[in-house]
Structures are given as C-alpha cells and as structure tokens.
Design brief:
278 residues, alpha/beta, Rossmann fold, eight-stranded mixed β-sheet, binds NADP nicotinamide-adenine-dinucleotide phosphate
C-alpha cells in the first residue's frame, strides 16, 4: 500500500460538485479496473478531490504507478489490491480489504471489463458468454453485496460503468452486450428497491459511447466509424454524476441521448443508423 497523510488537496471541480463533495470529504473510494483506461482516470478525478482511493485490477506494477500519480494529484491516501474478477471469492476479498484498511466505504465504482476482447460474429461459444457474465456482471453484483452494509452505513454511492451496448443490442459483441444489459436490469431495480426501503444510497449508471482507451481503440478502432471521445472528460462526467447522486450519466451526451430517446419509438431507424457505423 502506498500512503500519504496530511496532504492538502487542490481540487479542480465545479462549485456544485465541491459543495456536495464536502458532505463526505475526504471520501473513501474503491475503483475497480483502475490500472488503465477510464478507471485510471476516475481514480485521478477522485484524487483531485482529496479522496482516499483504493485501486484494484490484475496487474500490480500498473496499479503501483497509478497509486503514485493519485498521491501526486492530491489523494489523501492510495492503496491497491491485485484481484482477478473472474473469481468471485477474490471480489469478496477486495471488499474485506477495503473495510479493514479504510474502515468503511463511501463510493463503490464498478468499472472493470474483461473476458470479451473478441469483436466478431457470434459463434455460439458458451464458455465466452459465461466468462463475460462472470467478470462483467456477476463480479459487480458480488462486490455490491459484499460492500452493501458499509455503503448503507456511510449513505454512500454506487457508480456502475455501463455502455450504450447495455441499452441497444450490439452486433459482434454479444457476450459483452448481454452483461451490460444485465447490469442495467440489476442496478435500476436495486435503485428502486433502496428508494422504497428509504435507504439513502445512490446508484448512478454511466452509459458510455466510444471512448479512446488503449484497449477499446485496439479492439474496435478499425472496425467502427465512430470518433473516440476523450477518457479524461468521460471520467470527469462520471465522477460528477456520482458525487451529485444522479441516476444516470450519458457520455458523450449529445451523440448518445437522442439515440436512447428515439430507440423506443423508432428502433429500426436507430439500429440501421448504428449499423451504418460498423
Ligand atoms: N472504452 C470504451 O469505448 C467504452 C465504451 C462503453 C463502455 N465502456 C466501459 O467503460 C469501462 C472501462 O472501459 P475501458 O475502456 O477503460 O477498459 P480497459 O481500458 O480495457 O480497462 C479495463 C480495466 O479492467 C481491468 N480488468 C480486465 N480484466 C479484469 C479481470 N479479469 N479482473 C480484474 N480486473 C480486470 C483491467 O486491468 P488488468 O488488465 O490490470 O486486470 C483494466 O484496469 C468498462 O466497464 C467498459 O465496458 C468503455
């Protein structure tokens, strides 16, 4: 674990964000899949707000580098744990470690993605579907179950990083799309249930388009005609939506929101517009 105490954070954020943030400052934040990509940027955003950040992914060297940068950006502390989310016991252990070292949790950011790098026609590979569902859906649920009592105690927040592929069926990424649809079902139901039980725990789902992370560009860069959007701005929007306890973040807003609105009324048109970008 890398730690630095007595740091004075220099947040760069909107006043509404800072006002809301000051209620929980300095918040304790777990970001999964934070060794690279959007998760790494989310960790930096929370660090700028002075959070205690807890990072997890499989590659330790990358996590150490990210933790170092978190401290330089103003994190109150930066710890990490190596875990493979294809193992649900490892997911449970991550939360145990968070509880032991931070004494609670304010933000659970579920962001990791894996097991579904294949972009191509569905070949009926059941093992691939099962792997994707475990890493990209069941581990999110396991982390949530394990962290629920800490989040209820802190009246905290769950931020779920999803995709337009969880709202509109996506050819060539069936296993991934299935996991994202499952996330939408689980977390929108959980949000309503918490509300009915008058539990003050927010659930924010981030619906993302194409973002310029190294892995996304490598896997689909030469296969789709969409322009990639910056991961830094994407992370800012996700953190802002989470801290402001919004139910949904759509990024990039102006390209995705019309698709999401019109898909109910004109599904054929929206799908053929999207098919033209493949
Ligand atoms: N980029 C896009 O265009 C895009 C679009 C829509 C939605 N999203 C969503 O945004 C989120 C982040 O995407 P991204 O592009 O930033 O992904 P990324 O760059 O591929 O990063 C994925 C992260 O997950 C970790 N990871 C992968 N397999 C894992 C496993 N088995 N166990 C634990 N950690 C694992 C990786 O670290 P290790 O390899 O070190 O384990 C890495 O930190 C995902 O939920 C994704 O679905 C992205």
């Amino acid at each position: 674990a890398t730690e630095s105490l007595n740091k004075v954070p220099m947040p760069k954020a909107s006043s509404a964000l800072l006002l809301t943030w000051s209620d929980t400052f300095p918040a304790r934040v777990l970001v999964t899949g934070s060794s690279t990509g959007i998760g790494e940027q989310i960790a930096y955003e929370f660090s700028r707000l002075g959070a205690h950040v807890f990072l997890t992914a499989r590659r330790e060297e990358q996590l150490k580098q990210v933790a170092k940068k978190c401290l330089a950006l103003g994190a109150s502390s930066a710890r990490h744990i190596v875990a493979d989310m294809s193992d649900l016991t490892a997911a449970q252990k991550v939360i145990e470690d968070v509880g032991n070292s931070l004494g609670g949790l304010d933000y659970l950011v579920l962001n990791h993605v894996g097991g579904s790098e294949y972009f191509g026609p569905f070949k009926g590979d059941m093992a691939a579907v099962s792997r994707s569902m475990t890493i990209n859906f069941l581990s999110y649920v396991q982390l949530t179950i394990s962290a629920l009592s800490m989040l209820q105690e802190s009246q905290g927040s769950i931020i779920v990083v999803s995709s337009v592929s969880g709202r509109i069926g996506s050819p060539f990424t069936l296993s991934y799309s299935a996991a994202k649809f499952a996330l939408e079902g689980f977390y929108s139901s959980l949000r309503r249930e918490l509300h009915l039980q008058q539990t003050n725990l927010s659930v924010t789902v981030a619906v993302l388009g194409y973002i310029n992370t190294d892995n996304a560009v490598r896997i689909v860069g030469d296969k789709i005609a969409w322009a990639a959007n910056p991961k830094e701005e994407c992370a800012q929007e996700i953190v802002k939506g989470g801290v402001l306890r919004q139910r949904e973040v759509v990024y990039p807003y102006w390209s995705l929101k019309p698709l999401l609105l019109f898909k109910e009324w004109m599904p054929g048109l929206i799908e053929s517009l999207m098919d033209n970008t493949l």
